[in-house]
Amino acid sequence: MSAPGAGFEYPPQEVSWLKRDALLFANSIGCTADELHFLYELHPNFQVFPTYPIILPFKQTDTEVIDFYARQSSTSIPDVPKFDSRRVVDGQRLVQFYKPLPATSAGKTFELRTKVIGVYDKGKAGSVVETETVLKERGGSVYSRAVGSAFFVGQGGWGGPKTTSFPPPQGKEPDAVYEFQTTPESALLYRLNGDYNPLHATPEPGQKMGFGGAIMHGLFSWNSTCHGLLKTLGDSDPKNMKEFEARFAAPVRPGDKLVTQIWRTGEIKDGWEEIRFVTKLGNGTVLLSNGRALMKPVTERSRL
Q1: What is the structure's pLDDT at 121?
Q2: Residues 247, 250: Cα–Cα separation, whole Å
Q3: What is this structure's pTM?
Q4: Rounded distance between C-alpha atoms, residue 137 and residue 159, angstroms
Q5: Which of 88, 151, 147 shows the shortest CA–CA distance to 119?
Q6: What is the 3-state secondary structure (H, E, C) of 203-261?
Q7: φ and ψ at 294, to 5 degrees?
Q8: How far apart are CA 228 and CA 231, in angstroms?
Q9: Which residues contact 266 (CB under 8 A, 6 or more apart)?
């Protein structure tokens, strides 16, 4: 039996970006001055950070701030309740990288093709909407595939199916640790990528949802952790990462420290090693669980 809403396809959505957007994104997730190929548009190897497609469902073709709530509530999924987009947080994200993005979309037409995998009832806690989104050039190649879930807080109990879960890595000391210190302004910077959810800018929405105030974007933690893995194990070279995923386990407040523990499993298939990771707050609270990436680890650092 398929999950409610499974197979529903949203209308194709045109998306676009400029070099300036790529620079902003790299700055907002913690890229540093020794990674100028992400931060300087005239660098001979200038590249868009590989997880940038994850922001495009929010940004679309916008160059100006938009009404987040109005856009999120514009399309309903058949056979499931209409959820309140003012009470939504990220659940889990997987992204697979097929081709590097061009520095700008100018001169080409790119679009997102999104379909619903399923809608899952978590009971009193809420409901999860799982979708698949493909970024492709119109009439051409696919650049990335993302599977993501949105968690609608306190909007469950309607009789839908439950999701499955798998445990985080166990039984081995981490091979590497990456730390990132957020600031009170980190969410205010990240939102300029196109995710203008008020939950990350002003305290009132977070207070109503039980978070006590504004919280960081879940995708900020997700993207900054991906950057940490790529910098720590992959020499900051996008060619060394094929896939990245993690589940959102706890909110982050602006000013919190993120600590990512990274394990090399030694399991290699077609040249790609499976990497496991967990990201925690400085106090030990797990904020990203079920972390997994496919990478080609680099043992000696080189210059791009």
Answers
A1: 76
A2: 9
A3: 0.90
A4: 39
A5: 151
A6: HHHHHHCCCCCCCCCHHHHHHHHHHHHHHHHCCCCHHHEEEEEEEECCCCCCCCEEEEE
A7: -110, 120
A8: 5
A9: 273
